[in-house]
Amino acid sequence: MYRFIESIRLENGKFPLLEEHQLRLSKTFNHFGHFNPFILDEVISVPEEYLNGIFKCRVVYDLHGKVSVEFVPYRIKKLSTFCLVDIGSADYPYKFEDRQWIMDLLNKSEEDEIIMCRNGEINDSSYANLVFFDGDQWVTPKHPLLQGTRRARLLKASIIKERIIRDNEIFNFHQFKCINAMISWEETPVYQIGQIKKTIS
What is the rounded CA–CA span in Å between residue 153 and residue 118? Predict the structure, then answer.
């Protein structure tokens, strides 16, 4: 049976992206033929010790109503080296709990992080969506492996734009960010394109 996960930012007792997480959860249920998704706000109860500071609320669930919720501290990853990795026909359209194939690619790369490509098109990093700065605006790949909640919010606010980004044009950009639900736009580290190595198989 499939198990899915939502990693939700809890910031001083509030969930800034809960609407986006609920939408993704509901789409997951609907895709697999289940039309009565649970409501995140009804299954999450925040203990008093997590009301101050930033924590990851980890919601693991299946399509039959089994849900577990835990809270863990969150620290932004420190990354220095990246490489492009061709993932072939692999896909990750829903937030499955099992991400072992992605972790295997990361471990094989021997770099801090990977930038996954498919058919010559940039998709995602191992744990985040990507945005690239072209000197004028921030753009994100039009076809990420997973539609991230932070990405959705930034697109809606017109802070970032989406378009197809080919692997052979990535070095035309200046900087990039790895964005996910746990990191606000303002606190997301900015990396230099020179930190990316060319494709490895």
Answer: 25
